[in-house]
């Protein structure tokens, strides 16, 4: 009835293990078909070792890899034992499939379990099954698994001694569960906690536990009583990265404990050197992120004792001022990346930035949001910070043509520049046309004084430069944010390859790109 015949796929015994199928490409309209022609297709993967096929699978995305597993039994088998990352929809309906799922994927080391708010998540029993099946698990991410309790996490921790990274968000367990993880997972290197409902006022102290010597990164986000993590933060002697974001309460006291610990470490190290010994296992903090916190200059003065800091974010902390920034600049002379969101409080400005220019000659990346800097401080930074490669200036009413001309004339190493919501004009763009000889990327957004003609002129002058400009005639209620300026959250995908119907997400750090 005018329909195409089905494709016939047959196996042919030959040295090259080829396949033969009958083609229907020669179709004669309305009356039938011509003689069907047999075409040989060679399966070039037949002689390929399983290990090489698994290596190829590593370069595929989740969807492509799922489809490849359906090609034949061999690909299905190789995909199963070579898949190390898995991301699952952690609804209660998946419970019956867990045994068969982890029989097939028996080499999983990185697992993400996510459940939506409207669904019921898997329970403690399911987590126990996973801990028994995945004996080599090194990374676990939990999102919205509200049915998992302290007892379930405690049992999981006892069975998962190889765990190195744990990320929990929007779960209901609390301090007891985390203390169990810290006690039993002695190899834990990264701990990320977000909106954990069980961490509330009056919660028992957390840490440090057996993981005190292995932890290198701690991230606390949107917690009611994040101060309960103080023993863990202070007791983690190899901690290199600390991120505290949008957590309630006063954090000055916690930062003072951190600063005092670092100072004691420095004094002990000097003492050990005098006596011919040193503790090679102790590494001071190198990266601190403070965002939307109740932190004052007392806290900044405290972290200035962490003299090895290379990356510092001070974002939307309205009680911080020039005094605190000066303390940091005078003591943290190895600073390479500095992000400041002054939230337009005018408490951080030229005075603090001049101190940065004077003491932090290794600065490579500077992001200023809502900071009213002028040509005085920007000129000092341009002259003294000769390694500055990335600069973002956003939401400042004092950064105009003069300031941009200063940057264009003096920032010889600058490669990437972002200007957003600043009162500049075409004059500033003209200055950039001949300045900053190493500039490869520029973004100008929501700057009303800049015309589209200026952008076209700049493209003609700097043909190899990547230029991103808009018409700049809207949004009078501008509010700068980290994501607006290209400093966005990127991360390593926990579920590089996922099971059918699974989802993926990211978790990482802010980067200027």
TrEMBL record:
Q: Which one Pfam family would you cite for this protein?
A: F-box_5
> Coiled-coil region(s) at which residues?
none
Q: Where is the F-box domain?
A: 48-88
InterPro entries documented for this protein:
COI1_F-box (IPR041567), F-box-like_dom_sf (IPR036047), F-box_dom (IPR001810), FBXL15_LRR (IPR057207), Leu-rich_rpt (IPR001611), Leu-rich_rpt_Cys-con_subtyp (IPR006553), LRR_dom_sf (IPR032675)
Q: Which Gene3D superfamilies match?
A: 1.20.1280.50, Ribonuclease Inhibitor
Name of protein: F-box protein SKIP2 isoform X2
- The organism encoding this protein is Gossypium hirsutum
- The gene that this protein is the product of is LOC107931670
């Amino acid at each position: 009835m005018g329909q195409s015949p089905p494709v016939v796929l047959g196996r042919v015994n030959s040295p090259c293990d080829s396949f033969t199928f009958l083609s229907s490409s020669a179709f004669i309209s309305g009356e039938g078909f011509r003689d069907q022609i047999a075409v040989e297709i060679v399966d070039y993967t037949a002689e390929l070792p399983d290990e090489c096929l698994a290596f190829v699978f590593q370069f595929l995305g989740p969807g492509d890899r799922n489809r490849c597993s359906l090609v034949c039994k061999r690909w299905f088998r190789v995909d199963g034992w070579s898949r190390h990352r898995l991301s699952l929809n952690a609804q209660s309906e998946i419970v019956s499939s867990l045994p068969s799922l982890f029989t097939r994927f028996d080499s999983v080391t990185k697992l993400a379990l996510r459940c939506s708010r409207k669904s019921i998540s898997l329970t403690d029993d399911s987590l126990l099954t996973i801990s028994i099946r995945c004996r080599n698990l090194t990374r676990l991410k939990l999102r919205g698994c509200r049915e998992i309790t302290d007892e379930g996490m405690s049992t999981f921790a006892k069975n998962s001694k190889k765990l190195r990274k744990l990320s929990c968000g929007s779960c209901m367990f609390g301090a007891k569960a985390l203390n169990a993880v810290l006690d039993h997972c002695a190899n834990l290197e990264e701990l990320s906690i977000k909106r954990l409902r069980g961490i509330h006022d009056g919660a028992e102290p957390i840490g440090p536990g057996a993981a005190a010597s292995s932890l290198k990164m701690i991230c606390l986000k949107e917690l009611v009583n994040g101060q309960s993590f103080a023993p863990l933060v202070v007791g983690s002697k190899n901690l290199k990265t600390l991120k505290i974001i949008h957590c309630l309460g006063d954090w000055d006291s916690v930062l003072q404990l951190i600063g005092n610990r670092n100072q004691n470490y420095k004094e002990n190290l000097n003492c050990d050197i005098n006596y011919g010994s040193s503790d090679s296992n102790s590494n001071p903090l190198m990266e601190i992120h403070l965002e939307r916190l109740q932190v004052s200059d007392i806290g900044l003065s405290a972290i200035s004792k962490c003299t090895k800091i290379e990356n510092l974010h001070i974002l939307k902390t309205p009680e911080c001022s020039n005094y605190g920034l000066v303390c940091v600049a005078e003591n943290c002379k190895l600073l390479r990346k500095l992000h400041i969101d002054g939230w337009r409080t005018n408490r951080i400005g030229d005075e603090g930035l001049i101190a940065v220019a004077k003491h932090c000659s290794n600065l490579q990346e500077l992001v200023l949001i809502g900071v009213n800097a002028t040509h005085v401080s920007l000129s000092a930074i341009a002259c003294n910070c000769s390694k500055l490669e990335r600069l973002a200036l956003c939401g400042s009413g004092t950064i105009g043509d003069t300031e941009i001309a200063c940057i264009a004339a003096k920032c010889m190493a600058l490669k990437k520049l972002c200007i957003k919501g600043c009162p500049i004009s075409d004059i500033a763009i003209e200055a950039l046309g001949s300045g900053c000889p190493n500039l490869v990327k520029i973004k100008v957004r929501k700057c009303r004084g800049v015309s589209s003609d200026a952008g076209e002129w700049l493209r003609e002058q700097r043909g190899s430069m990547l230029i991103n400009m808009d018409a700049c005639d809207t949004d009078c209620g501008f509010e700068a944010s980290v994501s607006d300026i290209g400093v966005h959250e990127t991360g390593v995908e926990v579920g590089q390859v996922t099971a059918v119907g699974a989802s993926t997400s990211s978790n990482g750090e802010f980067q200027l790109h």
